Every structure is written in C-alpha cells, then in structure tokens.
From TrEMBL, chains A, B:
Keywords: DNA-binding, Repressor, Transcription, Transcription regulation. Residues 14-69 form the HTH lacI-type domain. The keyword RNA-binding does not apply. This is LacI family DNA-binding transcriptional regulator. SUPFAM superfamilies: lambda repressor-like DNA-binding domains, Periplasmic binding protein-like I.
Length: 359, 359
DNA sequence: CTGTTAGCGCATTCAC
DNA sequence: GTGAATGCGCTAACAG
C-alpha cells in the first residue's frame, strides 16, 4: 500500500514512527534504542534516535507497549484507606516493586466498602496487572475467586482464613501474639483488671486480638477480672464507664485498645474525669502512630514492621511472577517461608513501652 | 522446582474473538453489547453474548480498549503522601471522578521527593491519562512544563505562582486568610505575644501562612510582640524555648503552628514543663486532624474543605476534558470561577475553636 | 440489525 | 546493523 509520509501534525503526541522518520531509521531501530536492547547498534544511530526523541518530545505509549508485550509490569494494591499504617505500607511497597521495575497502583476502598473494593479489583484486572496485593478483603471470598481466577497471583496481608486456591500467600502481622504480650505486660505492671476495647467486632484483625488477649490471660494462670468491650457499640465514654464498672475498685486497670486512635480518645476522657494515667488506668494501643508518641502521657503501642512485611510481599510476588531475585530477597524468602503455617506467614510486632504503662 | 511462568497462563485469557465465536456472532456485535451501545440489537443476540461472557469469564483488556479509543478515561493524582488531608483529598476526588466514568490513579511522592514525583508524573503521562491533578509540586516548573507540555490538562491544588501556560487552574485553600484569622483570634483572646511555628520554610504553603500571619498583625493596629520560628530547624523543644524567651513574661502566648501535628508535639512539651494550656500558652493548628479533637486539651484548628475543593477540581477538569457537566457542577463553576485571581482560586477555611484557645 | 475491515502504537521475529 | 511484516485486543466507521 502507498503509505505516504504520515503527517506528524495528525495526532499531537509523536509516535515511534515520527521518531523513526525524524532520525532516518526504522521503527524497529527506534524501539531497540529506546529499550536499550543488547542488539549491536552503531553509536551514531543511537545518537540520532536519542536526539529525535528529545526534539520531538517523544513519550512512549505504555498501553501500546503493554498490549504488545502482553505484560504490564504493573502491580495493584488495595487498602481500606490511605491513612496511617496502610499508607505507609503502600509507600514502602511502591519503592520495593519499583526496584524490580514494576509500578504499583494503589487504590483505597474508602473504609472497607465491598462495592468500591470490588470495583477497584475489577479495574486492576482489566488493566492486566501482573500481580495483586490486598489487605484481608471485606468482600466475599467467592466473588474474589471469580474475580481473580487463576490468572493473576494474589497476595494478602493481614487476612486470615483465605483458602490457598485464591490466595498464594498471606503475610500477616501476629496480632494474636502481640495482644497476649500486651495483657502480660499489664499484669506484670500490677494491673488487677484488664480490658480489651475493640472495634468492628467480627473483622479478622479484631478476632486475632481477642484470641491473643485470651491466650495472655490463660498463660497468667491465676484468674483476673477482665472483659471484652466493643467501642464501636458502646462509644468511647461508654467503654471507659463499662471498664470502670467492671473493675470495681481494682486498680490499675489495663485497657488494651484496637488501635492508637482509640487509646488517645480514652486518654482524653480520662483527663476530663481526672482519672490518672498510668496510676489508675494503663493503656496500650496498636500501630505506633505519630500521636502515640506525641500525646501526654505518651502511649505504649506496637510498632508495625512495614519494612519487613512489604519486603516479604514484594519478594514473594516477584518470584511468583517469574522475576529473578537477588541474593538478599532469596534469603529472605528462605528464612520465612518454611515457617509458614499453611500459606499464612506471621510477623512479630515490637512493643514500644511508654508512659501510659508507667515506663 | 522451576516455576512455570504464571504470567504466561494469562495468554489463556479470553478475548472478544473467543466470545464472538462462542456466541456465534461477530466481534463488532460483542463490542456493541459490552459497551452497551445505542445501536439496535436483537435481545436474543444480547443474551447469547452475555452468556458467553460469563461462561468464558471474559474480561475486557483496557489497554487494547484505550489504545483504540485514543483515550484512557483515567486521571492521575500526585500527592506528597497518603496521610491526613491528602489521603482524604484523594479518596474524595476518586469518588467524584468516578461519577463521571473516570478512574483515578493516585501516586504518593513519598514526602515531596522531586525525583519520585517526576517519575510518577512521567508514568502517568506515558499511560496517556486524560488529565492530571497535583499538589503544588516540589519539582521545578520548567521540568514540569516539558513533562506536561500542551497535551494533558493539569490542575494544581495548593500551589502558588504557577504560570498559566503550565497549569490550567490552581484550586487553593486560603491559608493566608486563615492565618490572619488565627492571629486575630489569639489577640481577641488576650494573647500578649504571638508566634508562628512553621516547617519547611520556603514552601508555598508555609509562605502563605507567614503572609497571613503578618497581615493579621498589621490589621490589629497596635504593635504586638511576635516572631516567626522554624520548627524544622529549632526542633519542637527549641521552638517552645524560643517562644518563651521572646515573650518574656507576657502571657498568654499564642502559638500558631504549621499543622496539628506540630501543635500536638508542642502540647506534649508544655505538659512536661507544667506550662498550662490555654492559660500560659494558646495553640492553633491546621488540618483538623483526628487527634486535634482527641488530644487533651483539644486543639483549635482549621477544617480542610475537602468536599468543596475536590468538587471544584473535578468539575473544572471534566469540563476541560470536554465532558458534559450536570446542572450542579455547572453552577459550581459559575459561582467560583469569576472570583479567580489570575488562574488561582481561593477557598475559605473554617476555624474550629477548641480548648487550646480557651473555648 | 450484523459482519468486515482498517487502524491504535509498539514489540518482535525474520530476511536483507 | 537495519528494516519490512505480523500481531497484541479492541473500537469505529462502513457495508450488507
């Protein structure tokens, strides 16, 4: 066919065809220099192409690239929201996968909304991402299975009870162990009554905390006054009231909360009531947020090992995709994978002792 | 055990050709029903296609779709980090543009790192997003211009001094006015000395606060002991020390901080030193973060009008892209656009009075 | 109403 | 070393 010199004025964004004709070479050559292929090329050719790229302001079209490569070099991440731990997780994971030449698209499910979550998942899949990472999803497992199918490897973090047909690996923080540790810290500190103040009863992360809370009590041996409270239901004030009521005049009371935010709110109520922390009430939170350190008194909390968690997620996913791992990442997987119970891997949390428990 | 290329199994993902042959129709027909086109079609045909789609587990390939459409129906957002205000902004904007049938890809620049920022921008452009939204970027204007060029409309939020050749519109929060208001609130509350404690001196958002701070002082008429401090340089403790030193025994001292986080940190130091808030020191923050409400005493702050800001950004960008606006959005633009000074639009912040200023 | 065909921008064999 | 040719999966006229 007679394909006259395609008018560059046609579409404003230049293509490799424009670059090729500007440099006086073929599009294959342009592709080769752009992708820094190992094929031998004349230095002069390279120079001409690079010059044309700059002067034309050429920018490759990744849609075309991916379509042709049948691979996107993109990963998707779904988190409940951008704040706190999840935001830090996203940022760190982005860095990690970039190291392997992948991009990470992050989507927030706007507070565990299953519909939004599903929409994002679907979109990521339509974009043919090479791999998926998600928090323990709110949506039903069945719909997820159908969504993900066999095509795209899915790694979960902080999700419990997912069948291995759906999820390749779950990289979980060991909230149960941490919770047990919290209880024992209270008891070692002289608390004569301990309370767990949770949120969203029924969610996996909450269940893990409850389980650990009870383990901690059991290991103590002697019976202790204790309770499980739902701050979502009772409200912050109601939770404190209930804790006080249940404890009678046993002091101090140890209150272990679902997260730092709840601890901070309880702390504010204690201040208002003239309840002393840590003399009357001791607090332990979770997440080690900025304000746990900056509050008065500062709040004992658990540091989230985002570095390790994202490292494991990234390394495993990369291997799953067929990417070559360096020595460090290989060792990392060898070190942790054997410890996997089923396909769930557990990472320890570190307690940061602060004033709210008298330290 | 050599891993078989999981990504290769994706080649088994069905295409419209598979669907077409399974349903016994042509690919054009499949395309028509998938996209719910207005062309008349036999109900039976639709049913057959939809059935084939389900049984085959067909999922459209958006890369191919976009390539063909020469349009991505995607927007990009770049923010310095996922936390707090920026995270809320991202979530809200995502909702807004979804309403118009667009997806929003959010990227965090990991704390104003110009290199990462530029990388994300470049990637978004390579993906041929239809529009871009960014905070006042850390990178140089020149490189941005080259990056964005004439192709993709760019809307900035909270960025000052960007030439209109680069930026179509800047939707800014009026930090200057808010800062002026903060100072006047201190003075009306009896503060005999006022201090601005900033961070990252030199950044636009900080400059705006300083400007407003000085305006507020000027409008007061009578001279007041005051100072501009850089908490990034002095540290939190150093900042408080300096404020106390400069104020002699003038009390109370009003300290207006760059954000709530800094207020909270100052509050903690006050507690340690036995300095009373608000009797000796009054505090006003910015962002109205969760902990501003939950701290003790609670901290007066400015609420960020994320709803309005994202509405304006979305409406303007949609119109710029050539999308049809509904009545509501049209009115919104008509209401605010005339007030634009140059191409910078200002939105008022609302002060939330709390205990840290004696309310 | 439904099928045919020509791109979209790029990667990737193979010949030259 | 370099360049035509083919295909990736889908959309969009244009025929029939």
């Amino acid at each position: 066919m007679k394909n006259e010199g395609s008018p560059m004025s046609k579409s404003k964004q230049p293509t490799i065809i424009d670059v090729a004709s500007a440099a006086g070479v073929s599009i294959a050559t342009v592709s080769n220099v752009i992708n820094r292929r190992k094929v031998p090329m004349a230095p002069e050719t390279i120079r001409k192409v690079e010059e044309a790229v700059v002067t034309l302001g050429y920018r490759r079209n990744v849609m075309a690239t991916n379509l042709s490569r049948r691979r996107s070099y993109e990963l998707g991440l779904i988190i409940p929201h951008f704040g706190g731990y999840y935001g830090r997780f996203a940022e760190k994971l982005e860095q990690r996968v970039h190291h392997f030449g992948y991009h990470l698209s992050v989507f927030s499910a706007a507070g565990m909304d299953p519909e939004i979550e599903q929409r994002h998942l679907e979109h990521l899949l339509q974009r043919r991402v090479d791999g998926l990472v998600s928090h323990g999803l709110a949506m039903s497992m069945q719909s997820t299975q159908q969504l993900v199918g066999e095509g795209t490897p899915l790694v979960i973090f902080n999700g419990w009870g997912w069948p291995s047909e759906i999820v390749k690996l779950a990289v979980n923080l060991d909230f149960a162990k941490a919770s047990s540790q919290a209880v024992q810290h209270f008891l070692a500190n002289g608390c004569r009554s301990v309370v767990y103040a949770g949120r969203r009863m029924g969610m996996g992360a909450n269940e893990q905390r409850i389980q650990g809370f009870e383990t901690g009590l059991a290991e103590h041996g002697e019976p202790v006054v204790h309770a499980l409270l739902d701050a979502g239901e009772l409200g912050v004030v109601g939770t404190l009231d209930e804790a006080l009521r249940l404890s009678g005049d046993l002091r101090p009371i140890g209150i272990y909360t679902f997260n730092d935010a709840l601890s901070l709110e309880l702390l504010a109520v204690c201040h208002e009531r003239g309840i002393r922390v840590p003399e009357d009430v001791q607090l332990i939170g979770m997440d080690n947020e900025f304000f746990a350190r900056a509050s008065f008194p500062s709040i004992t909390s658990f540091e989230m090992p985002v570095d390790l968690q994202t490292s494991l997620v990234a390394a495993f996913l990369m291997r799953e995709i067929g990417e070559e791992l360096d020595e460090e990442n290989t060792q990392l997987l060898e070190m942790y994978l054997p410890h996997v119970a089923g396909h769930e891997l557990f990472i320890d949390l570190e307690m940061i002792e602060r004033k709210s428990t008298g330290n």
